[in-house]
Each structure stands twice: as C-alpha cells, then as structure tokens.
Amino acid sequence: MIGRLFSFVAGAALGGYLVHKLNRTARAWSPGGIADRVESHVADYRAALREFNEDVQDAMEEHEAELRRRYHASRPAARPASPRPLPAPQTKPTTLKDGR
Questions:
Q1: Each residue of 52-83: pLDDT tens digit?
Q2: Kindly report the CA angle at 47 between 42 and 48, in degrees rounded to 5?
Q3: Between 20 and 30 A from 75 (CA), which of 38, 39, 85, 97?
Q4: Closest CA relative to residue 37, chosen from 50, 28, 45
C-alpha cells in the first residue's frame, strides 16, 4: 500500500514537472518568446556598441588633444584670413531655336 502511494506521488510530481517544462518550452518558442529573446540580445548588442563608441570617442579626443599640443606650439600664430568674395557666375546669352 505504501509502495503504491509512493509511486502515485512520484508520478504526479514527475507529471507536474514535465507539464511545467513543456509549457515553458512552448512559451519560449512562441512568437512572443522569440521576440523577447531577440529583444534582449539586441539590447545587449546596443549597450556594447554604445560603450565601444564612447571608448573610440575618448581615444579620438585624447589623440586630437595630443596633436594640438604637439603642432600648435611649434606653429607661429597665423592671422585669420578674410573671406574672399565669390566671383560672379559667367553666363552665356541664350538663343531660342527659332532665332528670336
């Protein structure tokens, strides 16, 4: 009698666990579950790309500052050039096909 009761409880527990796992797998492979997984991966990639862009920006600013320090001190101060006016566009006289 105790053996049958133990088998019944063990079977019920195993059946409940299998139903739970199957429902979880079905939710994971549903369109909503796939979209959630893709969304989390995209968010991870977006965060990594943002961090990479910040690192590149910092390195670029450091390099530009180094170039300014190196070359700005060795160059004499140049006076700003005044902008030159643009030349007037040259146009040809147009003639109509019928000679007018």
A1: 999 999 999 999 999 999 988 666 656 666 67
A2: 95
A3: 85
A4: 28
